[in-house]
Fold this sequence. Notes:
alpha/beta; eight-stranded mixed beta barrel; binds magnesium ion
Amino acid sequence: QSKKNGNSDYNCYQDDMADDPTRKMKIEKELKTALDNKEFTLKYHPQYNTKTGKIWGFEALIRWKNPELGSVPPDEFIEVAEKNHFIIPIGEWVLDNAMRFLQDLYEQGYKGYSISVNISVIQLLQDDFVDTVINTVDKYNMPYPCLELEITETLMIKSFNLVDDKLNYLMEKGIKVALDDFGTGYSSLTYLRTLPFTTLKIDKGFVGDLTEKSVQGDLIASIIKIGNQVNSEVVAEGVETKEQLDNLRRNDCDRLQGYYFSKPLTKEEIVHFLLSEQKQQTT
Length: 283
Ligand code: C2E
Ligand code: MG
Ligand code: MG
Ligand code: MG
């Protein structure tokens, strides 16, 4: 009996590791040295142009492998990094590496692709955010329109004015701004009228629910219509089935991303992927 109780207590912690305070503390501690110890890598998730069926570009997604903690998913550690502001150097590292990846592709002859980089609101609120972004794109000599910043509403933005000016400035330069996970945030519709953006990225939760007969089909069609009405591009993430693909295509979704096409890939795998795609087109 006592043994059973002991086990269930233990299991309780195991079942919900994300809420384990000691794990959170470990994550916080290990994050401090993770950049210096080169524990982060990036994966790249292809996005397709729905009309042409060709690759539009890639979303850069961070991966963390720590000797103590093993692989920690971004959904678990980004939140911690936002709280203690480690997200600032980590975010700069992501942007720098994503632009270098794109430059590498260009130099290998794979031109015309774009890169989407996830940006935390904490980064956006820094005084030097605009300079950091512009300097990084310039450093790698890339055209501004090949960069898209994906902003997630993980935090309520209070000072819209400041953020507004920064995003407008970057957009005037040609940099794209996507509202990520659209539909799930604190106030998606408020964001629509207060934040400047070029792209709406529909959350994968909506796409996952998409089956022929479900009401979600109407919901997605409506979100895409809203996007078109405010002159933005609409992207769907989490596309896993042919059925979802067909539905999104019928509803004029501009870009598609998901496991149906590919999982997030390493840089080497991307080059391989592009090479085989090129061969298919020339033979
Ligand atoms: P997100 O920006 O919404 O990225 C999309 C997430 O959905 C990624 O998970 C991606 O792997 C996953 N995904 C895309 N298509 C499919 C699909 O068809 N099926 C399934 N099951 N999953 C799919 P990931 O890489 O675990 O990232 C989770 C979140 O962590 C991201 O959501 C983003 O909010 C955050 N994140 C990732 N990298 C960064 C980063 O460099 N900086 C910041 N600030 N946040 C990041
Ligand atoms: Mg994203
Ligand atoms: Mg998303
Ligand atoms: Mg997300």
